[in-house]
Amino acid sequence: MGNIQRFPHSAKAASTNPLKMSQPLGAALAFLGVDRCMPLFHGSQGCTAFGLVLLVRHFREAIPLQTTAMDQVSTILGGYENLEQAVRTIHERNAPALIGVATTGVTETKGEDMSGQYSLFRQRNPALAGLKLVFANTPDFSGGFEDGFSAAVTGIVEEVVQPSETTMKGQINVLAGCHLSPGDVEELRDIIESFGLSPIFLPDLSLSMSGRQPDDFTATSLGGVTVDQIASMGASELTLVIGEHMRVAAAALELKTDVRSVFFDRLTGLEASDRLVRTLSELSGRPVPAKLRRQRETLVDGMLDGHFFYSRKRIAVALEPDLLYAVTSFLADMGAEVIAAVSPTQTAVLEKLKAATVMVGDHSDVETLARDADLIVSNSHGRQGAARIGVPLHRMGLPMFDRLGAGLKVHVGYRGTRELLFEIGNLFLSREMDHDEHGHAHGHRHGDGHEHGQHCGSGSCGCSAG
Amino acid sequence: MLQEKLQDVFNEPGCSTNQAKSEKERKKGCSKALKPGAAAGGCAYDGAMIALQPIADAAHLVHGPIACLGNSWDNRGTKSSGSQLYRTGFTTDMSELDIIHGGEKKLYKAIKEIVQQYDPPAVFVYQTCVPAMIGDDIEAVCKFAAKKLGKPVIPVMAPGFVGSKNLGNKLAGETLLDHVIGTVEPEVTTPTDICIVGEYNLAGELWLVKPLLDEIGIRILSCISGDGRYNEVAQAHRARLTMVVCSQALVNVGRKMQERWGIPYFEGSFYGVSDMSDTLRTMARMLVERGADKAIIDRTEGVIAREESRVWRRLEPYKPRFDGKRVLLFTGGVKSWSMVTALEGAGLTIVGTSTKKSTKEDKERIKKMKGEEFHQWDDLKPRDIYKMLRDSEADIMMSGGRSQFIALKAKVPWLDLNQERHTPYAGYDGIVNLCEEIDKTLSNPIWRQVRLAAPWDLKPDAKPDARPVGA
Ligand code: SF4
């Protein structure tokens, strides 16, 4: 692998084609995994509109999201009035089970004291004592999507979870990081339930964001983990913590409930999946079900069939930190060379990445680092840069607005790993076949000789550069 | 400075809504106070970006934390026939340290980097909420950078919290008037040069109109700002005529160009058959009044006659297919209005529309056209729309992308009329495109299937293929 370059200093003042998304958006996504919830941004209306459009484009679902609509005057005088009015209005109109407030750059720059505002709200609205209200500090100018998600989950744990004297046999908690798609959560539920265990996911996007056909129109989130379920997390036997950015929430949960937790840094890959299955089998005292055994077998077989196409392939990956870790680790497992791993923010998990270059950067950095790569793995925003340098793009993460079913992709467990293995493997395979047909020399670099988009735009390489 | 600008914009005499108001009302501005917890829509920065970003060869740099650009770049369907630089998202991505120490230095560095790396003809710098709150003087930074780097660097003063998207459009127009228009002289001018204001070339719509203008002999000297080039926009003051595309968003630009350079303007639309013809006629007539060769009037009539008969002929096949089909328009804007006659000409019935952003006159006009029993809603709640659709009061809904799920969840056909769409609806061809899209959607066999009840929900005696009630 040569020498590893860690965090080359990016001296750029302008972030160009950003990979980063802001904290409140991450918080909004976490809140959307709670049943009958209304996420509320404490800030000006624009931030809310942008966040909403991004989530709509990715999930192709209606997204409930409100704003405290700070204007010039309230920005200067302070936003408590707006916040109180917003919460009351939402409560009156939609009576949600939970209102999740995320601050923004506008309110954080002003330095509004959110815990003070929380107490003030409680004091002034005794009639709303039953209303579940979570305030998360999520300034736009620090951290990123993952941090906002984590702050919201931690806030929910602190506000809603109750300690319990008794333990419910077979009940387990899963703190599901934002690198898990609704499809991933569904897959995990399947795996866990196949051991006779009953999981409570926090948050549970599989029930709210995977395509619902409601009988009536709802203004809040529809489906997701219920407030009552969250409250009962203290009675669980065990908490599975998925992803580095769930550690803070996990600590809060342990502190409140004494439920012991097991940490998983990823669930993509054979060994990672083995560890999950072993944990579940031990906890439940049941043998591994036949379905999972079969899935493991086909994954092993797929790895054997697929490794030819992965060996020594040069791949650049740019994703949110925990997903970045899961994907680069999986690619390394398959014998590929991750030449660059680009993260939107600095976090501890980057220290563990197996990549020639690890950096905090944007899509333009990917474009520079991936010039001679065989593949880029990133979100849909990567498509412009990938097209310019003629490298195919495999889409993962968020936002993925130019593919259907973005939210339902599965990358965890034996089955999900197999799916990812085949998706990427097929890109390499089809390119080799393609080039043979065109009479090119084997290994001919894509984009060198021909006008990009003409030959591969139809999707054989998956880039359909547009 | 910004305060004065805002007052000025609120005072727009070219805006008829505004002129109907009292002095005091006008001072309050046109953005209604938003209700916390019940507000929707973009901010002023968003509006400014919409109006200016189609200037394709310029760099558009957003000064602020990641929220303003990070969540929003690369989300509009405006097209360019050349430079793609406008699609690159640039932001200073302000961090905590920048908030504490001020972001001016970083901003200057960012501008310099962009100029060195991309050499655009100009850089637009967008002010957003956070730097405005901490007092970053971006006007000074831009001035300094322009001098140092020898390039126009233009501050766009529209931080989100000052108001709505529509206000941001206007502030963008003011920016062009203050810093851009009139700064470059065209190499050649012709007596038929026009400037189009408020057309963003969404889905390439301008390209459905331009060939007709070419044929007539009318030259688009500059379009603000669809498929725009910085230098062309800067030459707009040499146009003989301005067309303000029917939304009220940029009427201030048309009026002030008249004030400053004596260029007459008119409000027109490229949507709908009769509006399109009216627009071409008005253009030709006004250009002739300003000294262009009379022959363009005949050429215009020729083009109109040919295109109109062509378009009606092409719409003919849709008539039987559209018979009895009812459309619910939910756009919040006025744009849809110019399409209505054409849609009705193709046999559709329009059952109602929202008038959230329409003026009093618009509403009167609609009432006159459609009669009293026609629905007009100022503020229709999603739940009510859902119910209407569920109760089969319309066969298709046309709206902006955000409300699509109201229709789709009610299992009713839906068509995008707003900025994310991919099909151009402008000009004569655009109307045919629109009808084709409507037809495609309405006649799709999925509607029958998705309304079928699940097997486990069927009553034991029902036939397996029975349609559920109320679908
Ligand atoms: S409201 Fe302010 S902070 Fe939010 S997106 Fe608009 S400019 Fe940015």
TrEMBL record, chain A:
Entry keyword Oxidoreductase: yes
Domain called Nitrogenase/oxidoreductase component: residue spans: 22-428
Bias kind Low complexity: ranges: 455-466
Oxidoreductase as UniProt keyword: yes
Region Disordered, residue ranges: 437-466
Origin superkingdom: Bacteria
Protein name, UniProt field: Nitrogenase iron-molybdenum cofactor biosynthesis protein NifN
Species: Azospirillum baldaniorum
UniProtKB/TrEMBL annotation, chain B:
SUPFAM superfamilies in the cross-refs: Helical backbone' metal receptor (SSF53807)
Annotated Nitrogenase/oxidoreductase component domain residues: 43-442
Alphabetically ordered keywords of this record: Nitrogen fixation, Oxidoreductase
A GO BP annotation: protein-containing complex assembly
GO molecular function terms attached to this record: nitrogenase activity
InterPro entries per UniProt: Nase/OxRdtase_comp1 (IPR000510), Nase_comp1_CS (IPR000318), NifE (IPR005973), NifE-like (IPR049939)
A Pfam family: Oxidored_nitro
Pathway, per record: Cofactor biosynthesis; Fe-Mo cofactor biosynthesis
General function of this protein: This protein may play a role in the biosynthesis of the prosthetic group of nitrogenase (FeMo cofactor).
Similarity annotation: Belongs to the NifD/NifK/NifE/NifN family.
Protein name (Swiss-Prot/TrEMBL): Nitrogenase iron-molybdenum cofactor biosynthesis protein NifE
Source lineage: Bacteria, Pseudomonadati, Pseudomonadota, Alphaproteobacteria, Rhodospirillales
